[in-house]
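Office hours follow-up: a student asked to see two folded examples consecutively, so here they are.
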Amino acid sequence: MIQGTSSGAGKTTLVAALCRIFSDKGYRVAPFKSQNMSNFAYITPDFEISRAQAIQAIGARCDIVSDLNPILLKPLGNYYSMVYLNGKRYKKMHAKSYYEKFVNTDGIKIVSKSLKTLQKNYDFIILEGAGSPAEINLQKFDIANMRVAKKANASVLLISDIDKGGSFASIIGTMSLIEQKYQKLVKGFIFNKFRGDINVLKPGFQKLKNITKIPVLGTIPMISLNLPEEDSLNAKPKEIIWTKKNILKIDNELNNLAKIVESNIDIKFIENLLK
């Protein structure tokens, strides 16, 4: 499972890359994000899920199905969202009701069912977390990070956006705020969006390992991607028409992304975690 020290750390992109890398290696692989908040969806006559999971599915070369993203939240403002379950419109919910009355009852059941379905049909499931696992005010309502990782018996890789600064502190802070029973799930760190000489970072990697006993698996350089973005504070996403031409463009971009990621992180280490 790929989790991040913050939103926008690179979770979605890394999952897409790993899906393509392991698909190229001959594995049957699928992405999974239990809960996503986005106003940009992949829509069919039968269901809709976040377009991020649809792009990841293109990377994995698997069918795009509702189980890839069983809960989709479309924000409406004033703490309300339109909730989609298994690709179908459910109802408008206030954040308070969603957290206190839904996530730990129907929500976790829906997530668990979709995850089990995917696990039966694929060799590897590459899970994506949401936001950060260190949101201590929301940990008891978690159905997207550590609780799901535990349920899936998944190892966790923690990614951080070093371009924003403070990555070492963010990683150590995140580890200190994760519940102790979940800390052992974290097997490696990845730095994303790095500019400059990697040798400048290496002393920090060793200090980080000395403190956490967890290795850094690689550093992904800052790259320009021509993939549709999700709606976030730093993105101005555009709608996409899912034509064969546009899907081919996404497919080619995923090939380029996979090559860059594979050459900069320890894929063999990750493959061993998945087996």
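And the second, which I mentioned at the end of office hours:
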Amino acid sequence: MTAQDYDTFRSETRQWLEENCPAAMRVTPRKDGSDNVFGGTQFEFQSAEQRLWLQRMAERGWTAPDWPAKYGGGGLDAQQTKILRQEMRALGCRDPLIGHGLWMLGPALLEYGNEQQKQQHIPDIVHGRIRWCQGYSEPGAGSDLASLRCRADDMGDHYLVNGQKCWTSDGDKADWMFCLVRTDSSGPKQQGISFVLFPMDTPGVSVRPVPLLTGQAHFCDTFLENVKVPKENLVGEEGQGWTIAKALLAHERKMMASMDDTMPAPPKSLRDYAVERFGTDEQGRIADVEIRRRVIDQMMRKKSLDLTQQRAFEEGMAGDIDMRMTTIFKYAGTEYQKRNTELFMDLQGIEGCRWDAENFPEESQFPTTWMNSLAFTIAGGSSEVQLNLIAKRALELPQE
């Protein structure tokens, strides 16, 4: 496409969004994510506008704009997808649908799944009909995921799966799980792992939510006892699970690195909050020198991250794709978010400790968001692990 074609696409996209995005879907979501749309058979829409916005976007494939149109995606190229995201953010449009299916499983299936699996699962993901959860971590197999012990015994036409998964995000609300299992224990641990799919209502699957400090229970323990998984639910080849798992984690880290850019712009910026609390000096600057320094530091971090992501995007458009950047962006993006929420908390002072959402709907979101930001520096690979990977793969530093 030419530059003129992209300009035309931008103007047409802006017009379509203005005409089709309900006003109620142009309000910044709650920071705790409680009013996001996850889809699935158990999900209950909180308003007719939520349902309508998902329906309209899914009909165009714009819930997954860069996925192939033959499976229900939007069929857009990378630049068109970026333009769509920019116009949605400029107008304040919420994402019509979020979740593990869009962020992780879908891209993995498009790369490694067979045609039957793509036809079965991708359209349901695009339209939010099925909600997925991730069966990766286990007790004793977190950062060292390859040490997983969840076993899948070959029973001819199916596997019999036994084991436990932990930190299963929203496992109690999911319809299906994508799961790493051990199909071979005789060789190197990475080579004996396979990637399977199964419904959460399969006999032998039980889920126990884990309450968190925030008062929420997004995480679950999942117990698998003689769970029958048909062989057709094996993604890729037997023993290829580690390769698929790494590819899927790359998509997860990419999502986590860019979360801030996929959300509608907040009603007030860091500087706005700082000015409200501390006022300005005679030159119009934030009056508190230390707060001013921290706000400027965060603004510079965000700008440098945006510019680096833009450079990587343009290099990718030119055919120079460097997968090491995913790890760098995951670390930089989640650490930026952690610092950002810490600063928001500090700007609120004692008001930032409000926990009563009914009486303090805005203030009570800050401590929850801060706690969740700490979790994101662990999920998808902790910051410490990411630094080791950056040192080894990106900087090629000595391992000793």
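Two things to take away from it. The chain has a mean pLDDT of 88. The chain has three domains: 3-98+110-126, 132-239, 268-394.
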